[in-house]
Amino acid sequence: MEMSAAAGSLGMSGHRQHSVKRRRWGGLRQQWKLLGLFEIDQQHEFYSLTCMMKEGLAAATQNTIDNAPTNELSDDDFRLKVTQIHKDFTMETFAGPVFSSLRGSLGMTEQEYQQSLCSENCYLQFISNSKSKADFFLTNDKRFFLKTQNKREIKFLLSNLKIYMEHLRKYPHSLLVKFLGVHRIKIPHRRKKYFIVMQSVFYPDDRIIARYDIKGCEVSRWTEPAPEGSQIIVVLKDLNFEGQSITLDQQRPWLLRQVEIDTHFLRRLNVLDYSLLVAHQPLHHDERHQSLSFATLIMRTKKSVNPGSSPVHAGIAAVPGSVPEDDATLLLCKTDGSCLMQSQAEVASSDGTLQMYSEHAGPGSDAAELPDFQAQNRRLLPNLKNPLHVIDGPEQRYFIGIIDIFTVYSFKKRLEYLWKRLRYPGRSFSTVSPQTYCLRLSHWVQDHTK
Prior knowledge:
Helix content: 25-40%
Largest sheet: 8 strands, antiparallel
Shape: globular
Distance between the termini: 82 Å
Structural class: alpha+beta
Number of strands: 19
């Protein structure tokens, strides 16, 4: 009887300790949740999945390192599917050489890509206010996003991969999110998991003050801001941005033109409901008020890249900021491989950006009239390579990119549009035709920049 009572007492004690531990763990989970990020350690529901992702990505990237493509991409490369068998799962990698080529054009070596994705540090779960059922993960250095996708979205991306790559070759500073890998994990007796790897738009995020997800409409486009002074990460929306503007000065014509080009590309794909991500942080004093000569620009450019890690492939525009270490002159390379020396048409702006000006540079002009367009806006950050989504204004640094490009204007979406017209008369909502969506987002950027 006493032994039974003692056992019961021990059982209750163990239960209380477990409950206390669970409450502490729950509190920690809640704290991370409020911050918008949650470390995926051994107690996390996604720990097993992310471990498989890491193991699979390490093997897939190693396969690319060991079998580096030497020729131009072929149609077979776009259709390629490589299957690697692991102890508890199988992982398939789609169009591996294509994404490897893209990573190289962004100045990214396979080794550093592998190191970031497969380090011993835990992934972070990003708690999104998105309506999608996708799971979002972030590498520990916050450089890459991993997002689960459904089969339809993956099929859509792979079927349009060739024209997506052509668009990025033509416009290497495109605002479109950079997809760096597409994979599928098969676990016995469980559903297959598709996921993509993307470059984070908000990188580096150390001093970012505010983040916005913009769709150019008003219905359901307000998010309650975080309390003033708190560290909570909240992605705000269109209505939160009202009364503010993106102040770019010399960079504004470039941004308007690139938004127009990218949204017209998405219109061709017949998609809608994509978002323009915008974040900002103040420039440091020396970044705002320095007098930047061309020689200083060259030195800053050299400082922004690691020599030898950003190869320039034939037929691909030079990655932003790449400068031959032994060259005293900055060369601007066009997509046909020929190079332009600095001319009077080039202006080095005070933020370390090299711009090419043209009488045809305004929105609406044909891309063929802009032979130097892709070299126009070389955005640089000291000690950080190729921050493609970074644009400096006179006082603020802006992080800008277009994400979520998988929603096709299907029959279901057309019905949704008709229903929303009845429900929200006279108000703007996200579900409209690709043509209307494209123009509306471009107009939003025009109206909110100066």
